[in-house]
Predict the 3D structure of the following.
Amino acid sequence: MLAFLREHRAAAWVTLLSFLLTAWVPLFNRSRAGDLSNWYSDHLHHPYATWVGLTKGAVVYTVPFQQVFSRKDTGYPHEAAGSTWGEMPGMAYPPGIFAVFLPTSLLGRCVPLSTHAFGVVNILYLLLLAHLSFFAVLVSLQALAPGSRALVALFTWLVMVSMASEGFYDPLFIGVGALGLRALALGNPDGALRWLCGAALLHFRAAPLAPFAGYATWLLLRGKPARTWPWRTLAFAALAAVLVVGSFLLMYPATEGFRRTHGMVLAGRPLALAVVLAVSALAMAVAFWFSDAAVGLSVAVGLALTLVERQPYWWHQAMLVLPLLGVGAARLQPRGAGATRAVLAGWMLALGPLVWTDASGKATDQPALLFLHFVNGYKASP
């Protein structure tokens, strides 16, 4: 580990400096639960829902969460603060999320803390995970083809810090996925498939990584007799697929009330839909021609998820970073890595304001406007 840090000391120092520059914000911001905008509650909900999953089992997936927290029988000290998502099941994520929030879930159960203190601890924890993920992105970019890598690093940092400062754990699946892309670029499809499956276990919106997982699987199996296949890795991939698909099928019926009241974001907006399709078609064409099929298919998966989006929440667009990080993973020397990355960054910037806006209606909640968002959101404690 120390040798790895020495090899990537510049990335490690940048990551540490960023963490130190952002970790003070929840400590001194005037916010009920430590989030930058004093608006969000996912960082309170997830530890509580994790506790419900530990104590009540699959009910956290199978019924609308209001049926759970309305009973007030979980014994969780922060039950009221985490009682959100009434029409949704308590967890709308694959089971890997329970491992992420188990430490703070147990902390909230066993250590007396005010809502503010518990929220601040969770924001600090998420900022730490986000910066570990950012470090993973930096070391992964070093293994990929040159060309606009600094742009990708800056862009990813904006996305990750924006999300973590508001209480979202999404940077973690991006960081784990980046390690899978790094392994693929370094000629290690076995490790790549493990990391990519790990990302899938963390979030359904890791789906744009599926084409890279498929390519890694093809590299592992092509031209080899079955007796030499990496059966442990394939078994892990199969188990991950069962858990991800199974948890989605388990929770989907419980979202009926939500789906009834929340239509597709782009429904009834023909101009916005046309722009999304046109910009995405350009992004796919550039990806297929200048990079490779895996990146092009990744963009296609991102577009498919965009078209079925029902919640116009800005942090949902984080999945569009994944094709950007994948340039050079499957094809080490793409025709134009820099140009492809620039186009894909523009693709994400174009789709964001059309599809994903925060429920608070603040245009500054777009990650690209992090600094303006900070100015508007930060209120120093007296």
About this structure: Residues 2-372 form one domain.
